[in-house]
Amino acid sequence: MNSNFYSGLWALAVPRRYSSNARPRTPALKDVRGVLPAHQRRSQAKQAAMISTGLQFLEKRGFDALSIAELTAANGFSVGSFYARFEDKDAFFRAIQTTALGHVLARAEELLAPERWKNASAEEVLTAFVGFFSGNVNRHRGFLRAVLQHESTQPGVWTPMRASGAAMATLLQTVLAPKLTGLPKDQREARIGFAVQVLYGTLINAVLHDPGPLALGDKALDRELVSMMSRYLGLKTKG
Question: Of 56, 150, 177, 197, which is most buried, counting CB atoms within 10 Å of its CB?
Answer without folding.
Answer: 150
